[in-house]
Amino acid sequence: MNILIVDDEANILRTTSIALKSMGHTPFTAESSRRAEFILAEEKIDAMFLDVMLGNENGLDYLTKLQNRKEKIPVIVFTAHSSIESAVDSMKRGAYDYIQKPFIPDEIRQMLAKLARSISLERKVEDLQEQVADADATIRLESEEPTVQKTYDMAFKAANSEASILILGPSGTGKTVLARNVHQRSPRATEPFVTVHCPSLSKELLESELFGHLKGSFTGAVKDTWGKVAAAEGGTLFLDEIGELPMEIQPKLLRLLQDREYERLGENRVRKSNIRVIAATNRDLSSEVQAGTFREDLYYRLKVIAVEMPPLSQRPSDILPLAETYLKHFARREGRKKLNYNSTAAQALIDYSWPGNLREMRNVIERSVILSNGDEIDASDLPDDFIADENGGPRPGQLISLADLEEAHIRRILAKSESLEQAAEILGIDTATLYRKRKRLGLT
Ligand SMILES: Nc1ncnc2c1ncn2[C@@H]1O[C@H](COP(=O)(O)OP(=O)(O)OP(=O)(O)O)[C@@H](O)[C@H]1O
């Protein structure tokens, strides 16, 4: 790091410089704030040591001035031994920390190690904020389909209430994104949003993940823990894949929803909780209720408001607007702002069945932006599944019946094979069966 030491004592400047050099830093020295300003104008300084007794000057006043700079530099203040007031005052004025004089090099070393940790943490937070903003830039929470728009309207209206929300829909349709958005639009927005993935854990671990446990309450419980219900206090608990919640835990969740009470595993103390629950599932919970694998009372508690995210194939008029949102984002990221789809690519996007829904579309569009050349994305820049074959026939994954798909497949294999026997071998059926099918389909 480039470190500036500001002190009117030449001895301190000299010894601190030597110590900093031995730790691999580059020291700069200034005996006054004027000299310090001069150095700040010339060098990129990462951290500063500043004496509060700066000869005729007041180091604390200079500290205040430094805090008003556009580029903040962490300042560690040297205070006189026994001067608690100036230490407190310097912290109030925004110092990163203070060291009392006289000090030994090891105190400087420890202080800089602490500062390096803070700086690295700050960078990580900045990176994460950037990533979140990046993901947010592709989110489109409106729809050209009136039923889907109604779903969004209903969910966002419910955001203001305390009601539990159940989000239904296949994988990748945006249930998690919707749940987070409801939280962000709710009065709990500044409190935590905590996710629990119900299927990923054994019954005991899931219960402990939710409610916490006391040491020794089950094998492997080596210390006391607080669960995610406690972590979400004041905020929203998002239960992903609620359909997988084991029967044994269901009454405990019901009690949490109904009475706002829970107990940690292995503890007899009832705790109160203030959380809002949003749950999601790709299963048909009502049939699970019928089958007796999901409690009916819990089901009704969860679905005070129920919203359904349909598969992308049932939102045809959203395909191009969504693709456009992703395209803009990835094209900007790759520095190719003029990029567009040509009409064949746009048609291929519309014709595709999107079994992986929005998640798949995001990946497909990102890939096509990276693989395309020039200012146009062509159908050939899309994955193989998107390209209709030379016969223009149906493709696996398209919304067609098995019989139609079988017919198209048999036609293609017959066209490519040299004999009926070869075609039968490729198809994995005997020649007589293929012969009959061929006849029935009128392919002779
Ligand atoms: N409204 C939206 N606009 C644009 N992209 C979205 C939207 N919702 C979701 N996506 C994209 O789809 C991906 C999957 O979304 P999400 O995780 O919310 O789906 P999910 O239904 O919860 O899936 P799973 O059931 O597999 O957990 C997200 O990472 C995001 O890239």
UniProtKB/TrEMBL annotation:
Transcription in keyword set: yes
GO MF assignments: ATP binding; sequence-specific DNA binding
Keyword Nucleotide-binding: yes
Biological process terms in GO annotation: phosphorelay signal transduction system; regulation of DNA-templated transcription
Segments forming domain Sigma-54 factor interaction: 141-370
Lineage: Bacteria, Pseudomonadati, Verrucomicrobiota, Opitutia, Puniceicoccales
Family matches, as SUPFAM superfamilies: CheY-like (SSF52172), Homeodomain-like (SSF46689), P-loop containing nucleoside triphosphate hydrolases (SSF52540)
UniProt name for this protein: Alginate biosynthesis transcriptional regulatory protein AlgB
Span of domain Response regulatory: 2-116
Record's keyword terms, sorted: ATP-binding, Coiled coil, Nucleotide-binding, Phosphoprotein, Transcription, Transcription regulation
Gene3D superfamilies in UniProt: 1.10.8.60, 3.40.50.2300, Homeodomain-like, P-loop containing nucleotide triphosphate hydrolases
Coiled coil: 118-145
InterPro entries assigned to the protein according to its UniProt record, in alphabetical order: AAA+_ATPase, AAA_lid_NorR, CheY-like_superfamily, Homeodomain-like_sf, HTH_Fis, P-loop_NTPase, Sig_transdc_resp-reg_receiver, Sigma_54_int
Tree of life domain: Bacteria
UniProt-listed Pfam families: AAA_lid_14 (PF25601), HTH_8 (PF02954), Response_reg (PF00072), Sigma54_activat (PF00158)
Residue numbers bearing the 4-aspartylphosphate modification: 51
